[in-house]
């Protein structure tokens, strides 16, 4: 089988130039994505249509030749499978019915396998259609991040509604996170069994938590996911991305058991190098450098390669690519990553 460099790095190997992919690499900055999205109907219709979801996942691979493709879907398919009336409103983002404490025990995951079957079908199609050398990444949202949307019914600047909910109703929060961890683990297992090479857990709102809450609401449920996935798929490779975790990143890796740490652009190179001594890191270019291009892009890429290129590194952004990113700058990023020599 053709070697997939991403998996070598996730196993702790140093590969240079490093494998590269970008979070949200299938998205609105691509005209072919915008055309497909217009044909799909709603955003969720696109996520649940295996043919169209496969198409948009493959678009950046065809155009740029990234070393990995990431399944096109959304972290909120889990609450959608719980019938929380998820919808995506143009200009306002995701919305759903806010969750109250007394509703948590009524949440019914029994329909999840059937509801999410189209996503699993997409994974199988992708593995059949991707180039042999291209890794396929599955994913889910971390329980804490998914819970923040479920509790408020929408995103908020610092997810205050969910934090307050957890402080006032800690047992209810634990119950919700345990359910989401179980569902998410089963969902990831199905993705791996369908052909995903590895999976990523997105904890996009980890950075709003204090230390005690981070350990209870981010680390603990993520550890349950990792343990449950590996019980079904021994040796499964898992990337954890607790955005904004800062000083808690080492505790997160030790507490969860993930193979690689996704780093946002606020993580210093000194901290990143220290973390890299314990395993692979992924990141961490500021997405705005990709928009700016020129010296900002060149300097950002070189700094990451010089500081982290001598250890196990997956080159990525520190968060998702934005719709404003010029295609030419993405092409330049790939050229820089693949052709910059270390001094």
**Rg computed from alpha carbons, rounded to a whole number of angstroms:** 19 Å
Structural class: alpha/beta
- Quote the beta fraction: 5-15%
Q: In angstroms, what separates the terminal alpha carbons?
A: 33 Å
The stretches of 5 or more residues where confidence is low (pLDDT under 50) are none
Number of strands: 9
Taking all residues together, what is the mean pLDDT? Answer: 97
Give the strand line-up of the largest sheet. 1-4-5-6-7-8-9
Helix count?
Answer: 16
**Tell me, what's the shape?**
globular
Secondary-structure element sequence? HHHHEHEEHHEHHHEHEHEHEHHEH
Structure description:
The protein is of the alpha/beta class and 343 residues long. Helices cover 51% and strands 12% of the residues. It has 16 helices and nine strands. It has helices spanning 5-10, 31-40, 43-47, 50-64, 77-81, 112-115, 117-129, 143-152, 160-168, 170-194, 211-232, 249-256, 269-276, 287-292, 294-308, 327-339; strands spanning 68-70, 87-89, 93-95, 135-141, 198-203, 237-242, 260-262, 280-285, 313-317. It has a seven-stranded parallel β-sheet with strand order 1-4-5-6-7-8-9. Strands 2-3 form a two-stranded antiparallel sheet. Helix 2 runs antiparallel to helix 4. The longest helix is centred in the middle third of the chain and has 25 residues, at 170-194. It is globular, with a radius of gyration of 19 Å. The two termini are 33 Å apart.
Task: Note the main attributes of this structure.
alpha/beta, 343 residues, 9 strands
In short:
This protein has 16 helices and nine strands. It has 343 residues and is an alpha/beta fold.
